[in-house]
Amino acid sequence: MKRNFILAIDGPAGSGKSTVAKEVAKRLGLLYVDTGAMYRALTLKAIKGGIKFDDEGGLIDLAKGMDIAFKIDGEFKLSVQLEGVDVSEEIRKSYVTNNVKYVARIPGVREEMTKLQRKTASAGKGAVLEGRDIGTVVFPDADRKIYLDANARERISRRFKELKAKGYDVTMDDIEKDVMARDHSDKTREVAPLKKADDAVTIDTTGMTIAEVTERIVREVGNGA
Ligand code: DC
Predict the structure, then answer these.
(1) Ligand 1 pocket, 13 CB below 6 A?
(2) Most buried in the list 123, 153, 168, 200, measured by CB within 10 Å?
(3) Does residue 68 contact residue 22 with C-beta atoms inside 8 Å?
(4) Which pLDDT score is estimated for 75?
């Protein structure tokens, strides 16, 4: 049976994935799946439940029982619901961001997340999924694959502006440390590291606006959706 249309968007922190993936989904009338939010929500759930990051079995069980849902309002603003509670703000805080790597490196956790992501994406006529391993692991047969990148300076400055605009008390130094540390852990983890799929189209978004990147991807998708 032919499955629905899948657009995979991968790339490092600050490459513009989330904003652009949401815009593209809106333009094409597709579902938007933020897979980073799933790893973040699991991390939050572990912290709240007192599950230690070296308790692999406990974290896998937690992933198996995870009740996560995305809600998108009329303005296409995404909210992440964990067990029915809106955790959209909480999962972006640094105590969560800094600890995602401990759950994301466990093969059994990634397996559960992959299942959940495939299931979430199966609703509707198609989906845009953004993350680190969508084109390589979650949907190696995706209809279109995009790898978004940008130079480190720009990625750090985008992240800084984004968090400042949301009212977080951060410095460029904090963000530089976070982005560099996440680049390292995302690219060097043993299971499903961040890397470009062989058949992905790379877009270097340095110096490009959100509208330009969105336009470029919509063009890339062409009549496929
Ligand atoms: O996209 P993000 O910054 O919200 O992702 C947070 C972390 O989640 C990222 O640093 C690594 C992990 N992640 C992952 O391992 N696999 C994915 N598909 C998405 C995110």
Answers:
(1) yes
(2) 200
(3) no
(4) 73
CATH code at position 15: 3.40.50.300
31 neighbors 130 (Cβ within 8 angstroms):
no
* Structure tokens, 119: 């299931």
> pTM of whole model > 0.90?
yes
Which of 33, 132, 134, 179 for a ligand 1 pocket mutation test, highest count of atoms within 8 Å of Cβ? 132
Q: CB within 8 A of 69, min separation 6: which ones?
A: 80, 81
With a 6 Å cutoff on the Cβ, whether 182 touches ligand 1 is yes
Closest CA to 30 of 204, 224, 209, 202: 224
pLDDT at 1 over 70: no
pLDDT of residue 223: 53
Site to probe by mutation for ligand 1, drawn from 35, 39, 53 as the one with most ligand atoms within 8 Å of Cβ, is: 39
Residue identifier of the C-alpha nearest atom 13 of ligand 1: 36
Domain span holding position 130: 5-224
The helix/strand count (H/E) of the chain reads as 9, 8
Nearest residue by C-alpha to atom 5 in ligand 1: 36
Total domains in the chain come to 1
C-beta of 158 in contact with ligand 1 (< 6 A): no
